[in-house]
Amino acid sequence: MSQPPEDAPWARPPDPDRAPQGDQPAQSGPSAASDDGRFAAPGGGSAAPGSLPEWPGAQGGAGQGRPPQQAAGQQPQMLGDESVDGAAQAAQKHSSERIIDTSSGKADGLSKCPRCGSTDIQYSLTQKALVCAYCRHAWNEENAEEAFGLDSSIADLRGATMASGTADVREDLTVMTLKCQGCGAEIVINVDQELQARCHWCRQTLSVNSQIPNGAVPDAVLPFQLTREEAVERIDAFAGKRKAFAQGRFKQEFVPDNVMGVYIPYLVVDGNMHAVLAGRGELTTRQYTVRTGSGDNARSETFYDADVFSVQRAFDLLVDDLTVESAQRFDIHDSTQATNNILGAVRPYDVENAVAYNSNYLKNFTSERRDLNIRDVDDEVEDKFLAIARAKALPTISQYDRGVRWTEEGVAVHGTRWVAVYVPVWLYSYADSAQGEGSLVHYIAVNARNGNTMGSVPVSHPKIFAAACAAGSVAAVIGAVVGFGWFLAG
What we know:
By secondary structure, the chain is of the alpha+beta class. The chain has seven helices and 20 strands. The strands form four sheets. Strands 1, 2, 3, 8, 13, 14, 15, 16, 17, 18, 19 and 20 form a twelve-stranded mixed beta sheet that branches. The protein has a three-stranded antiparallel beta sheet with strand order 4-12-11, with no helix packed on it. A hairpin with a 6-residue loop joins strand 14 and strand 15. The longest helix has 29 residues, at about 460-490.
């Protein structure tokens, strides 16, 4: 509590409001987190109950054994080791590991039209469905959540449940040999670059139907909804609004028709957890102004008195369809080579409408291979769980007009469910041709499901400086005119 000078005049405000119900004054300090052993420190990697199941042939992901990371600017103290150990023991009692098989069950090779048996199939943006080139039959694969039982209650999740498409990536698996079921020829395909190829003897289209553990085949795919023409229109409008300060070379070289359809891999996670937040909240009791000095040395200061309360919130939390990037190339936290951060700005995606994977959805589009495992993104996911818990608690602390500072926080994850999904993006990229290799790549991205558009445009700093100078000059002239008017009026 601030103390005013003894000899200074100040007005005494009315008595403060009573303390908020349910929270205790802070004389005894913030209440400690529950010691029932249910809480684990975020970012410690052990918050999830039990360890992740080992995939056949896996030797651990790139991020395995990585020390916990703390979010930038995040200062709260994590729960102690005793609470973490207790949480692990409590969680182990209820933990289970489960792998859901989401493979198609089809043999590698021919992916046939269900009506005529043709393999010449592609996705039609006009019909929003797979279309057979021979009989024109149109259909879509079954909704992935319904097909694989991924729509069960999140509140019932215990341990780690993972769809088979989230298997740890094996970098050594790049080539597969497919036996054509039409003529018996053997076709070698580089699965690092493509998942379909034509038999050079009978012209049948051969598809990789099995979930190879190189990150190229997800559990589900979210098909494109926006056409290429609609995406070009949005990108053109986005860049047009920013051309006033754009580099001259960008305006000359900007060709919105160069947009490409890209499937970007995401890991989608559901979480069942218990969150605990503890800290101190401040409630203003009075506000007063103190005047000191006289003449040119006169000054006034405003003081605030506040009651401090220990605040604790504990609640169950269910998180549905949290999406996390799973390709290092498009890491939204790394914008040193390209403006990847704009890819996160076009979310959300309606991943609940994703369908079971069929490689024909990828025809005429490009796709990025997943190269991050669950262990690599586990810390980021737990940080997001904590952020959601803080947001969930906000409506319950609105009475503290000076805010609440959380000093202890944690989530005990009872269960998670992981699914690998391809999401569709129309992507325009631009790199300054004059700077050559190493120049920053600017992206303009369009969410191909809901049309959200975001991007970056290279700006001309001289133009911005000139505009700032012009604005300053105009403000100075206006100020001079107003001042001269006051002078004449006086």
